[in-house]
Specification:
This protein is an alpha+beta fold. It has five helices and twelve strands. The strands form two sheets. Strands 3, 4, 5, 6, 7, 8, 9, 10, 11 and 12 form a ten-stranded mixed sheet that branches. A two-stranded antiparallel sheet has the order 1-2. α2 packs across α3. It starts with 6 loop residues before the first helix and ends with a helix.
Length: 243
């Protein structure tokens, strides 16, 4: 998981991306400073160094325009977003999960650098309306930007999970029915990896049945549409016979 950039760092990232799209090369340290009224090039370099340490940039300090935004694909107007099987570990944890794959999606959907997908497994987010196999797009978020009803990816002492923020009750409702609600406390004190900005769901045939004739556990494939389609097909055959 990439730690969220602070406000000035995020503005610098946005400026670097828009500048790169206009000019096909990155702004210099002095140009970044002029854009944000920062007179010291050392201060700008410190912001760039911080963004590189957080994983948003790759830098060559020996070059004035030696910064590259990680995951930005200019040619296709897309952003390469990593996909994880679980909410990724915080930076600095002993174990770090490597992303199995990534998806190139329209940068307007990805929103901001540091976004990632999490593939829902089983019922871990069923109480929030998500199903096994859904891809949840998680974007970095600052505590002051969290709104009532937002679904958050939160790290806890015994793991991580998805929770819906309930401002009135000041609690976080869990995605899994096996997990109790937790007090929201000060959102600034929670290890929030980001908020769910969008989700993708495959629509089509469900998985095959197992040896017992039942759908694999943890799958919640909707069969109503299949029954409707079957009924329409039967009705169509009857109508053709009566013509």
């Amino acid at each position: 998981m990439l730690p969220p950039p602070n406000e000035i760092e995020r503005r610098i990232l946005d400026y670097m991306e828009s500048y790169l799209r206009r000019h096909t090369y990155q702004p210099s340290v002095r140009e970044i400073g002029a854009r944000f009224g920062i007179k010291s090039t050392k201060t700008v370099s410190e912001h760039l160094k911080s963004l590189a340490a957080k994983g948003y940039l790759e830098r060559d300090p020996s070059r004035s325009r030696g910064a590259r935004i990680v995951g930005l694909d200019l040619n296709a107007e897309t952003l390469s977003v990593p996909c994880h099987s679980r909410i990724p570990h915080r930076r600095g944890d002993a174990e770090e999960e490597e992303s199995a794959r990534s998806y190139a999606i329209d940068r307007r959907l990805a929103g901001s650098a540091g976004s990632f997908f999490v593939r829902v497994s089983g019922d871990e987010a069923g109480a929030l309306g998500y199903e096994d196999g859904d891809l949840l797009l998680v974007q970095p978020v600052l505590a002051r930007e969290i709104r009532d009803g937002d679904v958050l990816a939160v790290h806890l002492t015994d793991g991580a999970g998805f929770f819906r923020y309930d401002r009135a009750a000041d609690v976080l409702h869990p995605g899994s029915s096996d997990t109790p609600a937790i007090p929201a406390m000060r959102l600034e004190d929670l290890a929030v990896a980001g908020k769910v900005a969008a989700f993708l769901r495959s629509v089509g045939e469900g998985p095959g049945l197992d040896a017992s004739g039942e759908a694999p556990p943890g799958r919640r494939w909707r069969r109503g549409s299949r029954r409707i389609a079957d009924a329409r097909e039967i009705r169509g055959r009857r109508d053709r016979r009566h013509r």
